[in-house]
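Priority: medium. Attachment 1 of 2:
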């Protein structure tokens, strides 16, 4: 199955028009001074359901057949995709069963339940093992499985439409700093900016303890399953998608790795400097900038702030550390 095309991204943007928020692009004076180029933050933390994931989930569900809508869907999520899927399913009037790891952030878990989804908490702490359970349920119940990232429609909605907005507001942007887990956001965004911006550079940010995409690049093949200890940034843990890897392997210019301590510092920094509370996975991209991990930038940069969904317990732990 091919990845997202410019035509599919345009179709996703048209579908989402009026259904989601056009999130702002906010200058960051401190990062601008630190990195030596104009830096802006794409604030998807202000998006409906609290993350960029609503873009891909809603577009993907809108393309189900009538029979698939009647049957309902199965998916797996570390939290944000599940919340977005629950929201979109409610809007479309279909049944959604969402598998989540045992370590799911409680704010994300409660958000899915509040939207009426059938949420099943796995016995496993990792995303990868939980996805195996979801795939088995989809097989047994003969319902479509909706990937959180390894799907052209999801990539087109998540990263593609986000890139369209960024370039509409900042056509001069050259550097794109993006948190990467399974790769759906990055793949869609990289496809679009590499086609539209001459000399565009894509910088992927991963957690140092669970860098599925970096391991994939090192080994020359998609590492879709891996073991790792629990981290703050559940949204960027684990293996990469087989399809997203093939897209990103030729479009990624640099990979930055950050750890929990650096992510916590970045979350506090965002509160101090921009007065936004963001989730750890989103803070990873900020951490890479603050820690000097993204290399030398050649032009105006955009840092994607991917989400805000984080529990009170996690917030208190980070702010008091």
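Attachment 2 of 2:
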């Amino acid at each position: 199955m091919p990845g997202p095309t410019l035509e599919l991204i345009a179709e996703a943007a048209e579908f989402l028009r009026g259904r989601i928020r056009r999130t702002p692009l906010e200058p960051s004076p401190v990062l601008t001074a630190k990195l030596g180029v104009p830096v802006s933050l794409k604030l998807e933390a202000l998006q409906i359901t609290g993350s960029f994931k609503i873009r891909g989930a809603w577009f993907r569900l809108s393309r189900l057949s009538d029979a698939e809508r009647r049957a309902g869907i199965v998916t797996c999520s570390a939290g944000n995709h599940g919340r977005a899927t629950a929201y979109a399913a409610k809007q479309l009037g279909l049944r959604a069963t969402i598998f989540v790891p045992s370590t799911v952030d409680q704010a994300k878990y409660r958000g899915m339940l509040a939207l009426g989804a059938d949420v099943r908490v796995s016995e496993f702490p990792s995303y990868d093992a939980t996805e195996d359970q979801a795939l088995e349920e989809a097989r047994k119940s003969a319902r479509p499985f909706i990937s959180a990232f390894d799907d052209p429609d999801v990539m087109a909605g998540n990263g593609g439409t986000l890139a369209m907005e960024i370039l509409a507001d900042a056509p001069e942007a050259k550097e794109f700093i993006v948190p990467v887990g399974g790769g759906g956001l990055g793949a869609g965004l990289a496809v679009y900016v590499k086609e539209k911006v001459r000399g565009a550079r894509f910088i992927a940010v991963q957690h140092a303890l669970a860098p599925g995409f970096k391991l994939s690049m090192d080994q020359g093949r998609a590492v879709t399953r891996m073991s790792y200890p629990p981290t703050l940034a559940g949204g960027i843990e684990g293996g990469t998608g087989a399809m997203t890897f093939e897209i990103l392997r030729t479009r990624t210019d640099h990979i930055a790795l950050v750890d929990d301590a650096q992510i916590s510092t970045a979350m506090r920094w965002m509160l101090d400097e921009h007065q936004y509370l963001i989730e750890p996975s989103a803070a990873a991209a900020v951490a890479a900038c603050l820690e000097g991990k993204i290399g030398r930038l050649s032009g105006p940069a955009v840092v994607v702030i991917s989400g805000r969904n984080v529990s009170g317990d996690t917030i208190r732990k980070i702010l008091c550390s």
